[in-house]
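#lab-general

N.A. 3:47 PM
ok so I finally got the sequence cleaned up, no stray characters, all 330 residues accounted for. can someone with queue access submit it? mine expired

B.Y. 3:52 PM
send it over

N.A. 3:53 PM
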Amino acid sequence: MSVRDEVLLLLERRKGEYCSGEEIARQLFVTRNAVWKAVSSLRAQGYPIEAVTNRGYRLSEEGGIFSAQSVRRCLGADDGWFSVEVAETVTSTNTVLKERAAAGAPEGTVLIARQQTGGRGRLGRSFASPRGTGLYTSILLRPKMRAEQALFLTTAVAVAVAEAIEEHSGKPAGIKWVNDIWIGGRKVCGILTEASIDFESGGLEYAVVGWGINLVEPPGGFPGELRGIAGAVFDAPPSEEVQSRLIASTLRRFKRYYETFSERAFWQGYCDRSILIGKEITILGAEQQNALALGIDGECRLRVRLENGEERLLSSGEVSVRPQTGERGE
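B.Y. 4:20 PM
back already:
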């Protein structure tokens, strides 16, 4: 970590408090001139750092810039488990982390972007990721689990995201099996899990779980194909502090679930937030089938009853809610 990043992290952790240049230099084992240069660089980038003679430097509580340091500060005691990076623009956070995973990057590596130029959803679909309206996050994991259990990673992240959204927006969040978060009848987050399989052991070499949250609607609304389907968590742009806390809360919650995977502590929260149970749905695919969504089993599979009365468990695939008269399906 550069001196600039270390100074920012220290000021983030003591946001609103003055820290003298001498104190910062002593804690970071650098010269006061190095501290001054770091602060000057940060202020040139727009960080609201105040400098007062005989008091030192302070990061203003009223403003800030969303950064890796701001997220790390909000992570608190969990900071050490994650390695957080924030980028303005990437092709796809999942794509970048898969490349790093293949190169040996450690578990807990997190990449957050403000914009994706090649964002991807399930089934190879493009994922709209415009600048300034969302946060796009991926985490690299090296889980000791069978390949077929990768579904648990998606569902655990879904619950963590839903809980964090509820905490910071005050709005109830529902989950559309298997990987979408909905608020008020609109999709506000999509989740994509990709993995590399060790064919000798049948386990996962690594997994990358990515999720994109629509913070606010883009100017002029969502594109035509998403209009009426996509929504946003907030009615007005949230502050950088709220954004940092939203991401940190999601990461902290997921870490708890990940560390206790055998207990499936996320399962009940997933079931409780399901927007499908009891609904007439269409199972999409080469041959579409209508069914009734009955519930979610302990393996996070969707239990359905087909029109011929046959019950089936779905471990993958895509479904849509069948619209009632005058309604539009999801």
